[in-house]
Amino acid sequence: MSGRIIIHTLLWLVAAACSVIAWIFSQSIWAACVSVLLLLLPLMSCLWNLWQRRHVNVRLEMITTAEKNQTVQGMLYLRTDALEPVGRIWALVSVHNDLTDEETCISLPVQPDGSATFALRTDHCGRLCVSVKQLWLTGIFGFLPIRCHVKTKIHMTV
Predict the structure, then answer these.
(1) Cα 131 from Cα 14, distance rounded (Å)
(2) Measured in Å, how far apart are the chain's first and last C-alpha atoms?
(3) Can you tell me the distance from the alpha carbon of 51 to that of 85, in angstroms, rounded to the nearest whole number?
């Protein structure tokens, strides 16, 4: 996720610099409007996501039992009590095996409809605790991540 944030930040900086240069050389009111808009939109979307993060609810769904070496599909559903957040949403799903004490993390982009699919496969028996470790809301241009505090977990026996 951090690589995408860097790329989106660089693209936004290039677009903002080009619009400011166009405004300086053309003295056009339209170039000024585009420059101001490009500079204000990230701040406004960040403020919006700061307000939205209190209204985010996350739910995990998957089967409760599976066999060793079986691939299991899981679903993450995101719902907001208010209006939709702007920008992309990323989730970090943690899978912890209570028997072997192994932990793996899966980074998931959440789709615009609020869902994300992930696949689990374990080589060991035990009880898996699947939880959302972190959730980020990014701004309209894909940077300035805002972290949401969510507490949801589900267990699966292998």
Answers:
(1) 38
(2) 30
(3) 9
Alpha carbon separation from 30 to 34, 44, 59, 77, 115 (Å, rounded): 6, 20, 45, 41, 38
The stretch 146-154 carries a mean pLDDT of: 90
Of 134, 142, 154, 155, the residue nearest 92 (C-alpha): 134
Q: Is the whole model's pTM more than 0.70, yes or no?
A: yes
Residue in the structure block whose two tokens are 């619009």: 19
State both tokens at 155.
């267990």
d(CA 108, CA 24): 41
Q: State the alpha helices, DSSP H only, in 53-112.
A: none
Q: What digits encode the pLDDT tens for the residues 57-82? A: 899 999 999 998 899 999 999 988 77
